[in-house]
Amino acid sequence: MSNSKGKWGIVTGGNRGLGLETCRQLAQKGYSVVLTARDLTQAQEAAANLARAGTVQAAHLDVTDEASVRAFAEQAEASFGPLHALVNNAGISMKGFDVDVVQGTLGVNFFGALRVTQALSPLLVDGGNVVMVSSGMGELNAYSSAIKARFLDEALGVDGLVALVGEFAAAVKNGQHEAAGWPSSAYRVSKAALNALTRILARQSARLHVNAICPGWVKTDMGGPSASRTVEQGARSIVWAATLGADAPNGGFFRDNKAIGW
Ligand code: NAP
Predict the structure, then answer these.
(1) I need a surface site. Which of 19, 68, 90, 225 has the fewest CB within 10 A?
(2) Is a pLDDT exceeding 70 seen at residue 32?
(3) Ligand 1 within 6 A of 230 CB?
(4) pTM of the entire predicted model
(5) Which atom number of ligand 1 is nearest to the Cα of residue 134?
């Protein structure tokens, strides 16, 4: 781990849960943290509550809103210091399973992370860390071998991946997704797509480290009160990946700082 003086880090969905705790731990490590949320008032309240941890400033960022992402990228370029870490943490897990749930879930968990990373990657310093907060639910064991192979294809690019998740949404709409080899879970597919995006961006960028993290099952609004881990434990792996130095791994999937399978 390298010296964190003067380093800046951005966290999406920072107003609660793992995002909030990630902001706290990054600030405690000396990073200047930009805690973003889709509700600016909530971001400001959360940042104020972290004042004792270190330097935390609030900003508005709705990962599903192109204009919000563009405005935030302009703000970042104009007013933030050297950006060393981008944590794509914002995520949702919706009840039910139909095409609206699929589109809503992919919209935040996959397209949100893609949009934010594309907008902010140019602002990251050489050797900067992009962290995709993924999940063991993104593992590829619930798919037909043909779909699994398409996710893992080293020739897959962003456009191909967008087309692949579009096929999932179309298959759900037509009631054909199981026959086509997909699981009945928008969340699983969104995280499998996020993992594929991690591999693609890692292959494409020699300048940055792009890694996916599974925080484990964590007590948050999403994880629920029965979850086995505290937010402090869950955020630790995320912060580890966000603060890696020059010899960092690139294009991996980690839990508790150890590589896990796709
Ligand atoms: P959480 O407590 O439900 O928090 C989710 C965060 O995402 C909230 O800050 C929420 O903001 C934000 N968000 C949702 N939609 C957004 C949008 N369009 N733009 C910006 N922010 C948005 O969940 P969590 O457990 O902390 O989850 C954080 C990440 O960890 C997620 O990616 C999740 O999939 C992943 N994860 C969690 C677990 C677990 O057991 N908890 C396990 C594996 C992976 P609002 O307050 O505005 O809704």
Answers:
(1) 225
(2) yes
(3) no
(4) 0.98
(5) 44
Q: How far is the CA of 80 from the centre of ligand 1 (A)?
A: 24
138 Cα–ligand 1 center, Å = 15
Which residue, by CA, sits nearest to atom 19 of ligand 1? Answer: 62
Closest C-alpha to ligand 1, atom 23: 222
Distance 166 CA to ligand 1 centre (A): 23
pLDDT one-digit tens code per residue, 144-198: 999 999 999 999 999 999 999 999 999 999 999 999 999 999 999 999 999 999 9
The pLDDT assigned to 119 comes to 98
Question: Domain locations in the chain?
Answer: 2-136+197-259
What architecture (CATH level 2) is domain 2-136+197-259?
A: 3-Layer(aba) Sandwich (3.40)
Whose C-alpha lies nearest to ligand 1, atom 10?
Answer: 13
Residue pLDDT, tens place only, 110-121: 999 999 999 999
Catalytic residue among 187, 240, 253, 254: 187
Could you write out the DSSP letters of every residue in the chain? Answer: ----TT-EEEESSTTSHHHHHHHHHHHHTT-EEEEEESSHHHHHHHHHHTTTTS-EEEEE--TT-HHHHHHHHHHHHHH---EEEEEE------SS-SHHHHHHHHHHHTHHHHHHHHHHGGGEEEEEEEEEE--GGG-GGGS-HHHHHHHH-TT--HHHHHHHHHHHHHHHHTT-TTTTT--S-HHHHHHHHHHHHHHHHHHH-SSSEEEEE---SB-STTT-TT-SB-HHHHHHHHHHHHT--TT---S-EEETTEE---
Chain segment 196-232, per-residue pLDDT in tens: 999 999 999 999 999 999 999 999 999 999 999 999 9
